[in-house]
Amino acid sequence: MNRFDLPQLGIGVGLRTAHYQTILSEHPAVDWFEAVSENYMQTKGRPLAILDRIAERYPVVLHGVSLSIGSTSPLDFGYLAELKALRDRVSAPWVSDHLCWTGVLGRNTHDLLPVPFTEETLRHIAARVRVVQDFLESPLVLENVSSYVGFAASQMTEARFLAALAREADCGLLLDVNNVYVSARNHGFDPLDYLRNLPMDRVVQLHVAGHTDYGSVVVDTHVGPVPDPVWRLLDEARALGADAPVLLEWDADIPPFDVVHADALRARARWIEPLGVAS
Amino acid sequence: MTAAPVLASLADIQCWFQTVITDPASIEAGAARAGSPIASVVDVATAVGADEGLGVYHHAYRSRLVECLADDFPALRYAVGEGAFDELASRYITRHPSRSTSLNGYGGLFESFLRDQAPGLPSFLGDLAALEWSLVEILHAEDAPPLPVDALAKVSPERWTEARFIPSPTLRLRQFDFPVNDFFQAFKDGLSPREPRPALQHLAVYRQGFTLWRMVLRPSMATLLRSFARGVPLGEALSEVERVSTEPLAAADVMAWFSSWVQGGFFQSIELPGAAP
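Structure tokens for the assembled complex are given below, as produced in the milestone run.
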């Protein structure tokens, strides 16, 4: 159990438009869904109506991509108000986003951009996380991102930065083991060392996904079934105490739902059923 | 020669990084514009080279937004060809960078961009973009309970002329210089439509529940619906149709129109002067 007493939901699947019809008509046996928050914001139409229908039947967790917690631009309280309303609408047990920034000077690149791991960044983001948590009146859960560059100014490793941030801001963590794998390959660090430096009692959710290995760089494409090295990292994270619900992401060349579901069921058989967790 | 000082402040790093990865030409051009060399910002000692790592972000920025536009304008992409579409989209991205936390409305200026800022394009493409964006708009428009099918019968005939038909938020009325609906339907059917010859086309684009629909309108129908959208009561709207229309207006036709419009959820309410809302 994590320190926030957030529930062990089991094995979830990322909610994607291509699967709406199957989910609504066949009601597949999925423990929970993770919805990308922004897909259901700045809309009052069909996406929201579909999310309502899904939330009537399944637990739905919200996962954002535009909070831009690491940006030096001001926090967008209009965005936060809409996010909070959406969370309440679908009774999401928690809201997550990424340890990243998405833009400055009024622009949004819609990418999860890395931050330099400095004392200045740590103080800046910790203060913003506290503001967001006060506004949302709940813990914010932040995910480690895949990255392709580091910064000359960085003063600490990403894992130590995350641990310090979680402690200073008292926030939760979403540990994406695929992102750990991707960044470890790209930056040449030891993924197990990374995991050992994280406070696992703050991990309230885990992500697994596929990636694309181009040889000289590994890119977090969320394509294909989850590869074995990522499953093994998940094993390691769980052995280190990350007893949290697992979410399977599949975003590129999205296959029919039953293919994605099969990967989720594989995870369920591997981790959830041996624990005897009801869902 | 001494190395450039390391860019250390978070704000400076983010301005630099954004300038580099959004540069329309290259990361090198972006770094030159941003005023600091790559090695003064990015750790060049990692397994992935700094140029290749920045290149991932540079490529992802533009390709994500191009993909967003391609999702919203699939028939347009077919009409201009994938390569030309991606080039147009890239120019749009440069001119109209996203300033929103959501991509739902990102393509909202694409039609006007095509018409006003992409000279030389056939105007048919602007019409096609307008049709496809109408579909996006009604996808995201708020549902309103549709007017019940028996609502018309509940209005006493002597008050019909005063009745105002309030359109549903999920209805859009469009007038095109080209028969883009035919082109769009042929594209959806997997055919290979060619650019059509000019011909006026009026179209209602609407959503019922989760389903998006299109209805080609006769000019009289379009005039009547547009009058309703401006808040004109039925009697005055019909007079306007008779004044501008070149086609005869039969009462039976009008009743049939209303029947199909009400069944299609075109209206959310009928307002009568003095009646409770």
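The beta strands of chain A are 11-14, 32-36, 60-63, 95-98, 140-143, 172-176, 203-208, 212-213, 218-219, 246-248. DSSP finds nine helices and ten strands in chain A. Further analysis is deferred to the final report.
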